[in-house]
Structures are given as structure tokens and as C-alpha cells.
User: Which sequence fits this backbone?
């Protein structure tokens, strides 16, 4: 793996706007219709803090509390974007469940991660306030961003924060994420 290759997995409940966030970031467009994702990978070259990164972003199918963590979403992944929608309390409650599954799968104390409150334009139907999002992020030592893919607000910030979290833990000359050294028996 080239030292500037970074793989980011985007996880969260169904329909929280994972694909919309990624498509806005990689293709600068917002598609209003809903197509459930099975899985797809997007690629973008990003210049961040004067370093050029080849970023692969893995868009995953929506998870619920019974979903098993797919090993593809843990092995070889440098950083995570965990998305809930500010107008869905259930999707917010899923974040800790997904975070704990990743931690336990990877056998580490913490992971480079950004917790994202999506659809921030839907203020009238908001169920989760910003303070709750920040608190959850603080408890898990992750970054936190509220964003709207629809209005293209804070979209790039999500992925920049994720690169920042990765760089805090992965020195530039060591691009292999810890979980890629795991064995599956
Ligand atoms: N108002 C608003 N709607 C959004 C936003 N982002 C996504 N949506 C809408 O929410 C719905 C679901 O968006 P997707 O991006 O497909 O959600 P997803 O999380 O990828 O869904 P799954 O693939 O099922 O997991 C679509 O109708 C989007 O248009 C946003 O920022 N604001």
C-alpha cells in the first residue's frame, strides 16, 4: 500500500445520508432520491496540510443493531466516518453500537473516527441536538461534525477531520492500519 493511500469506511443506519455525503464530496452533487446501497467504493485525491492523499471511501449498506460487522469494513481501514441523522434518535443510538463493534473486532482501545450528524438542514424535525453529538464524540475520543449534504455544508470537513484523526495515529511513513495485521481464524 502506498504511504499516502488512506481507506475510510462510512457506516451508520439505513437512510441517514451516507451515500449523499460521499457523492457530494466526490462528485459535487446532491441526489434527492433514495437508492439503498449494497456497497461501493469511491476514490478521491485530496490535498490536506500540503500532503496529497489517495483516499478510498467505502460506502456501506445501512446497519442495524443485529448486523454483524463485515470484516471488509475493519481490515485495512485507516479511519471511520460514523453517520447518524439529526432527525433520527434511533440512528444516533446506533453510533455507540457500531463504534463498540469496530473496537471489539479490531482489539484496540480507540480508532481514528469522526461522528457525523447529517441532514443538519432539517432543523424543524431535529431529534438530536448538537451537544448530544459532541458529548458522544468526547466520550469516545472522536471528532464531531454536523453536516448537510443537501446544502453542501461541512461536507469536506468530515473527511478532513477523518484524515486528521488518522494522521494523529499513523505517522506518514507507516500507512498500514493496525487491523490489517489481524488474522481471521
Ligand atoms: N434534507 C436532507 N436530506 C438528505 C441529506 N442527505 C441525504 N438526504 C436524503 O436522505 C435519503 C437517504 O439518503 P442516502 O444517502 O441514500 O442514505 P444512505 O445512508 O446511503 O442509505 P443506505 O444506503 O440505505 O444505508 C435520500 O432521500 C436523500 O436525498 C441532507 O443533507 N439533507
Assistant:
Amino acid at each position: 500500500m502506498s504511504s499516502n493511500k488512506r481507506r475510510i469506511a462510512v457506516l451508520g443506519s439505513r437512510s441517514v445520508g451516507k451515500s449523499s455525503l460521499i457523492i457530494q464530496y466526490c462528485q459535487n452533487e446532491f441526489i434527492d432520491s433514495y437508492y439503498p446501497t449494497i456497497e461501493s467504493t469511491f476514490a478521491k485525491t485530496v490535498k490536506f496540510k500540503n500532503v496529497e492523499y489517495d483516499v478510498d471511501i467505502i460506502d456501506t449498506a445501512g446497519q442495524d443493531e443485529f448486523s454483524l460487522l463485515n470484516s471488509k469494513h475493519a481490515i485495512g481501514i485507516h479511519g471511520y466516518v460514523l453517520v447518524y441523522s439529526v432527525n433520527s434518535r434511533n440512528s444516533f443510538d446506533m453510533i455507540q453500537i457500531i463504534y463498540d463493534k469496530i473496537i471489539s473486532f479490531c482489539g484496540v482501545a480507540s480508532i481514528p473516527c469522526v461522528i457525523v450528524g447529517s441532514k443538519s438542514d432539517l432543523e424543524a424535525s431535529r431529534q438530536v441536538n448538537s451537544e448530544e453529538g459532541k458529548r458522544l464524540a468526547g466520550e469516545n475520543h472522536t471528532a464531531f461534525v454536523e453536516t448537510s449534504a443537501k446544502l453542501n455544508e461541512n461536507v469536506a470537513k468530515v473527511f478532513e477531520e477523518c484524515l486528521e484523526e488518522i494522521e494523529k495515529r499513523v505517522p506518514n511513513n507507516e500507512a498500514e492500519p493496525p487491523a490489517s495485521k489481524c488474522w481471521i481464524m
In short: The chain has four helices and six strands.
